[in-house]
Amino acid sequence: MWNSLVFVRRLQGRLLRRALLIAAALTLGCDSPSSPSIASAAGSYSLVAVNGAKLPVTVTASGATLTIESGSIALSPDGAVVSRHTTRASGAAQGTTTTSTGTWAIAGAAIGLDMQGNDLAGSLSATFASGVLTVTVAQGRTERFTK
To answer: Each residue of 49-68: pLDDT tens digit?
Structure first.
């Protein structure tokens, strides 16, 4: 009886170790919020909030007051990025759409954007989790985009 009890416990230990190894192997292929993959981050996003406030949002940039009416950003799997924003200057009858292009890459837990153009410019950082892309732009302003 003692031998069969030892045998059962060894078998349970082996099965537990195998189950843990299988679980670890499966989680290695999954994205986590702290390290996005190109496949999970690539896609088209719509601007939904600026500094936590839903659109339209009025901001002051370089001494001018603008209302951000809409925006989008598209991250291509090949590393290209296109960003568009429609803004309306204070007192203007209609908005103006500006576009920037550039490249993007994953850098650890963050996404780096290198942009050129009138919309967004310079090196920007972003985070990605659960289909939400949050970009930090000029003067610490954050823009939240959803797929």
So the answer is: 999 999 999 988 778 888 99
Contact 78, 42 (CB under 8 A): no
Backbone region of residue 52 per phi and psi (left: phi > 0; alpha: psi in -120 to 50; beta: other values) = left
Three-state DSSP class for 105?
strand
Please compute, for residue 84, the number of CA atoms within 13 A of its CA located in the half-sphere on the CB side: 10
Among candidate residues 130, 131, 135, 132, the one with its CA nearest the CA of residue 111: 135
- Category of 39 on φ-ψ map: left (φ > 0), alpha (ψ -120 to 50) or beta: alpha
The 10 Å Cβ neighbour count of residue 71 is: 23
Kindly state the tokens that stand for 126. 């972003």
- Give residue-wise pLDDT tens across range 86-142: 999 888 889 999 999 999 999 888 899 898 876 666 788 899 988 899 999 877 789
